[in-house]
Structure formats: C-alpha cells, structure tokens
Amino acid sequence: MCSKAKAKAYRWHDLRHHYASVLIAGNENPKVVSRRLGHKDVAFTMRIYAHLFAEAEEQTRSVLDAAWAEPGETDRKGSKISAAPGTNPESGSKRGALVQVNA
C-alpha cells in the first residue's frame, strides 16, 4: 500500500508508537492510553512510553506558571505569561510561584 502511494513504508509497530505518542502529546489520561493499546496495566504503558510523559513536565510547568502569574508578568525568557481568564494566582506575592519555592 505504501509503495503504491509512493510513501515511506512503516511497520505496524511504528504506527502503534505514533498512535500512543499522539494520545500522550494530547494530554490523554495514561490509563486511557494503556487501555487503547491493549496493555494489561498502566504501569506497563508508563515503562514503555515514560520518555514521552517526561516531555510533558515542561508543559506542566508552563501551565502552573500561567495559573500563578501576576497579570503582565513574564517568564524567564522574557515572554509574557498569559494566564487563563478567571484564574487567580495561588500566591499573593509579586514573584512567580516557582521562584518562591526555590527561594
């Protein structure tokens, strides 16, 4: 089929890994990913795809920074942090929450 379409040939394993990667990148619940892949438990899925969940760490930090940022505050790169409308920073300080933890 790939040769008729003049596309690169992929193995079924490659397509399965891509499927899992897309779900994980879309912040799908690991238990759902595990069930969709037919794994016996979520621990197995986490061992196989742990490197993809690790990439989510940066996104998690960004979400928390935005939630706890003061209006108009910038991140370490100088970009404006845009908090979701209606969110209130958990801290009353003018400094970002992660800076407070590290202080």
Keywords:
single chain; 103 residues; mainly alpha; 53% helix; 0% strand
Summed up:
The protein has 103 residues and is mainly α. Helix content is 53%, strand content 0%. It has one domain (12-102).
Can you characterise this structure?
Helix content is 53%, strand content 0%. It is mainly α and 103 residues long. It has one domain (12-102). The radius of gyration is 20 Å and the shape is flat. It starts with 11 loop residues before the first helix and ends with a helix.
Overall mean confidence score, pLDDT: 74
Helical content class? 40-55%
Strand pairing plus helix content: what structural class? Answer: mainly alpha
Low-confidence blocks of residues: 84-103
- Tertiary shape: flat
Total DSSP E strands: 0
Per DSSP, the total helix count is: 4
Q: N-to-C SSE series? A: HHHH
Main pleated-sheet profile: none
As for the number of domains, it is 1
Cα distance, first to last residue? 58 Å
Radius of gyration: 20 Å
Strand percentage = under 5%
